[in-house]
Amino acid sequence: MTPRVQPKRGEWTARQLRALPVTVDVETAGSVLGMGLWKARQLVRAGEFPVRVIRHGERYIIPSAPLLELLGVEPADTDGRAAG
What we know:
The protein has helices at about 15-20, 25-30, 35-45, 65-70, and strands at about 25, 55, 60-65. The protein is α+β, with helices and mostly antiparallel strands. Strands 1-3-2 form a 3-stranded antiparallel sheet. Strand 2 (about 55) and strand 3 (about 60-65) form a beta hairpin. The protein is globular. The protein starts with 13 loop residues before the first helix and ends in a 13-residue tail after the last helix.
């Protein structure tokens, strides 16, 4: 299996954003929003991350749909194409 290569911080395309799983980790969400892991974690701990964060045991997960909405990206439909 080929390892998945993540885009550089803040350089995500709409197609890459639509391909995100339902939830992502703090590092990925921060990258999508153009911030580094340290800053993303700082905002999560302070309760100031710009979208909803879910605590799952010792981990934090971020739903992808609010990230797309914040960035103004239409979600994909079931065929993987932009909805609308």
